[in-house]
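Feature request, filed as a ticket because there's no other form

It would be nice if the structure record came with a short human-readable summary line next to the tokens. Right now we just get the raw output. Example of a typical job, pasted below so the devs can see what we mean:
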Amino acid sequence: MPAAPLHLDTPLFLTSADYSAANRPLWLKLDALQPAGSFKLRGVGRLCQHEVENGAKEIFCASGGNAGIAAAYAGRALGIPVTIVVPETTAEDVRRSIAATGAAVLVHGSVFDEANAHAVNLAAERKAAYVHPFDHPLLWEGHGTLIDEVVAKGAEFDCVIASVGGGGLLAGIVAGLKRNGLDNVPVIAVETEGAASFNASLAAGERITLPAITSIATSLGARQVAQHVFDLPKHHPIESVTVTDAEAVAACLKFADAYRILVEPACGAALAVTDTHPDLLARFKNPLIEVCGGIGVSLEKLKMWRERLL
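Raw output as currently delivered:
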């Protein structure tokens, strides 16, 4: 019998039609309420459990923040040591949160790619398990449980809106739709300008590596999406859109005022679509928004970003 999952079955909430310019009720899947602060615990927890079941005594993971705290939470629950390698761009308060959850935190490199290469090398040297933050089939399987839960609650939805960084969440949503016989339900994949590697890759017809991440939504800061994610639009209806940092932050503040929940700008990107691209939603009656959460946020930060972006 498989071990119980480490993530929660999070609440599903229906907004009033007048919440956004889309002028229709929106299903909100509140993964900001996961114990590790974001959807990441679904897939990272699944992959960590798999590694421990197969003999792992130690785990290494690279992360800008949310996958790291998910791995730290999983390691604590599973009783094994975890080391998280973060790039220099990861804020000090996020590093402290990961450490407080029980993991060792190493800072290496100026971008995620450098931190990730270091984590891979350290895991190999120590014969430990390496957990990728967005590129692994078991991660996608775990993330797809959010769709399982929505379907189990009987909620009818005709599109899914989700933020894209490296693409693990997008891959998980597509996997979840597929296993629930919802192959025809489109996914609207949202990125902030300055972190839009998926959008740029689709436009170019090949995987693009961004020269730098210039968005404040650093949780979307993968300079290149996974190959599997780039290939997904060949097999599933996916529409790629972008929003500005200012639009993402405004959506975070609006959401906090309405529902008293703080989320990162990376999550605000998905929430912003209903106000910034209402025409895109005109053909849908029941959109589902994955409120993916994120630990790198405070009310003070949101207000500071709003002032800076005015």
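Something like this underneath would help us a lot:
Residues 163 and 282 are 20 Å apart (CA to CA).
The longest helix spans residues 112-126.
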